[in-house]
């Protein structure tokens, strides 16, 4: 969830110098001090876990990082330090400078395969009595030839518009499809334990998906749909059958116009169809305003919205000052932010409700739509932040039931702002607001639980069919 929606990213830049090795201790001390002084969730966890536990955690972290000069290892330790407070809603990332230095430290060499003669390769594939994953596979900006060599399937580049070069090996998969090694764009090998061959046309290696290009084989509709869900960056939807409209929303980040347009196109179908399925698997959030138009299709009664309170510090208030001083911002907007900024500045070191003097707001609509009669929302562990806020609002409707797995739990402290460390090595994001829900109705690290839980015996590719099956009984 981004600060007051319109602020989006606010990166505070520092002057920094070049360093070959990572000074992890210096970066840790800066992140630790910044978090202690400014994060809205810091004191809540200290009060909950105790200062002694925190000091022990700090000492153990300091001991580990003292020996680290590797940027990636430092990143892991910084993330582990932050996980004392919560499992998500913070961010540690390497800057371009650090990535460049890390590449020099690691100096991974590309693994290359013998050049593939495409026409000869295609003839070899077609001559086989049965098909495996051998063939041509496409991913974003890549065409990959997969060929079995000894006891491995080797995937190498035959066409590229990316950082990979021709004949670079992208992955190696064991003959029994139980594990793989994936080579990242800087050629670092990653060990992968999840490999799936879905139908004839989708190959999943960890969280990466590839679609078959050749040979052309029968494509099951549910496999094609699943690939679209896992690869699409934009919302999509359609009338699935006479009783169901299906909509997938991959993100709420700067997607309001796309979501609004999709619902506008499908409006006539939605308001005469009994069931609506909204799939937000892997939607990690964005801006609350992105889903505002969706609420009308779910609405049955006033929706309670628990308001956040903002922690006022000089650093936390800086984004509003940037807007006020921006010559491209109109005067009315500047005036609004100036009033908010002044209110925060008058209350340094305190939590302030910027919206009103109430802890809870009610969202009301003039009427409830007759259709859809039932709304199923598909969720999983990758739903965070604004996606969870949407779920919180939606589940208050009598029409709505949740399906899937519990969400990730990153909502109680929110509204992230972004910084760059003084060394220029790390991007760092923390939160400036906390919800009045805590501690009585906390979400962080616990998530929001579905009404219908899908355990591991139900493959994710079958989730939509399972939701349809359950909803068919709601007559």
Automatic annotation (TrEMBL):
Residues in Tail specific protease domain copies: 244-452
A family per Pfam: Peptidase_S41
Any single Gene Ontology cellular-component annotation: outer membrane-bounded periplasmic space
InterPro entries in the record: ClpP/crotonase-like_dom_sf, Tail-specific_protease
Any GO MF annotation of the entry: endopeptidase activity
Gene Ontology process terms (BP): proteolysis; signal transduction
PANTHER family referenced in this protein's UniProt entry, alphabetically: CARBOXY-TERMINAL PROCESSING PROTEASE CTPA, TAIL-SPECIFIC PROTEASE
The protein's name: Peptidase S41
Lineage of the species this protein comes from: Bacteria, Pseudomonadati, Bacteroidota, Flavobacteriia, Flavobacteriales
């Amino acid at each position: 969830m981004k600060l007051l929606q319109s602020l989006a990213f606010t990166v505070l830049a520092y002057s920094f110098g070049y360093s070959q090795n990572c000074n992890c201790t210096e970066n840790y001390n800066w992140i630790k001090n910044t978090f202690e002084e400014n994060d809205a969730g810091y004191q809540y966890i200290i009060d909950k876990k105790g200062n002694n536990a925190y000091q022990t955690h700090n000492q153990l972290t300091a001991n580990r990082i003292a020996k680290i000069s590797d940027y990636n290892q430092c990143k892991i330790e910084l993330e582990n330090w932050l996980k004392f407070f919560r499992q998500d809603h913070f961010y540690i990332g390497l800057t371009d400078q650090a990535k460049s230095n890390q590449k020099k430290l690691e100096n991974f060499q590309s693994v290359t395969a013998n050049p593939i003669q495409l026409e000869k390769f295609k003839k070899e594939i077609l001559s086989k009595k049965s098909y495996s994953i051998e063939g041509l596979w496409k991913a974003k900006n890549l065409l990959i030839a997969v060929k079995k060599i000894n006891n491995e399937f080797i995937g190498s580049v035959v066409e590229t518009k990316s950082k990979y070069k021709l004949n670079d090996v992208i992955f190696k998969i064991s003959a029994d499809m139980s594990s793989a090694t994936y080579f990242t764009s800087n050629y670092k090998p990653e060990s992968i334990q999840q490999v799936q061959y879905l139908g004839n046309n989708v190959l999943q290696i960890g969280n990466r998906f590839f679609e078959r290009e050749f040979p052309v084989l029968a494509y099951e509709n549910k496999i094609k749909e699943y690939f679209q869900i896992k690869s699409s960056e934009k919302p999509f939807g359609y009338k699935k059958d006479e009783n169901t409209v299906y909509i997938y929303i991959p993100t709420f980040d700067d997607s309001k116009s796309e979501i609004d347009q999709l619902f506008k196109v499908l409006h006539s179908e939605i308001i005469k169809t009994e069931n609506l399925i909204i799939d937000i698997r892997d939607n990690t959030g964005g801006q609350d305003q992105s889903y505002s138009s969706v609420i009308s299709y779910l609405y049955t009664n006033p929706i309670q919205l628990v308001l956040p309170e903002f922690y006022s510090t000089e650093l936390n208030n800086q984004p509003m000052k940037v807007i006020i001083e921006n010559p491209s911002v109109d005067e009315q907007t500047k005036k609004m932010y100036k009033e908010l900024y002044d209110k925060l500045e008058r209350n340094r070191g305190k939590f302030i409700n910027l919206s009103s003097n109430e802890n809870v707001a009610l969202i009301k609509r003039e009427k409830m739509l007759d259709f859809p009669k039932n709304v199923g929302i598909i969720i999983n562990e990758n739903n965070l932040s604004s996606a969870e806020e949407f779920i919180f609002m939606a589940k208050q409707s009598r029409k709505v039931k949740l399906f899937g797995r519990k969400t990730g739990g990153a909502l109680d402290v929110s509204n992230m702002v972004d910084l760059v460390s003084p060394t220029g090595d790390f991007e760092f994001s923390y939160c400036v607001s906390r919800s009045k829900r805590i501690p009585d109705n906390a979400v962080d690290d616990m998530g929001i639980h579905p009404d219908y839980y899908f355990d591991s015996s139900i493959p994710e590719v079958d989730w939509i069919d399972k939701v349809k099956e359950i909803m068919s009984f709601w007559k």
